[in-house]
Amino acid sequence: MDAYLDQISETHGAERYPRSARQYLEDWAAPERAYLRKYHAKSGEDADFELTPAIIVVSLR
After folding, report:
1. CA-CA distance, 25 to 22, in Å (whole number)?
2. Per-residue CA distances from 45 to 19, 33, 40 (Å)
3. What's the CA gap between 26 and 36, in Å, rounded?
4. What are φ and ψ of residue 6, in 5° steps?
5. Which bin fits 44, alpha (ψ -120 to 50), beta or left (φ > 0)?
6. Residues 11, 26: Cα–Cα separation, whole Å
7. What is the spatial distance between Cα 55 and Cα 53, in angstroms, rounded to a whole number?
8. Which residue from 16, 36, 44, 49 has the highest number of Cβ atoms inside 10 Å of its Cβ?
């Protein structure tokens, strides 16, 4: 996602998506949104994210 945001910034300017990929992921995983589920596959590793069932249903509509 970092690479994709860098590409968008180069094409459309940094103001389009000003936050880091990590900030967007954390925001989308927040309880009030819950688009993503955040978990740690192994202790000490960076967090992994996956789509929640609710967002999968919304995207299919």
Report:
1. 5
2. 22, 24, 7
3. 9
4. -60, -40
5. left
6. 25
7. 6
8. 36
Q: Which amino acid is at 27?
A: D
CA 10 to chain centre: 20
d(CA 39, CA 49): 6
pLDDT single digits (tens) 3-58: 999 999 999 999 999 999 999 999 999 999 989 999 988 877 889 999 998 777 66
Beta bridge partners of 38: 49
Q: Where are the domains of the chain?
A: 2-60
Instruction: Tokens 């000490």: give the residue.
Output: 44
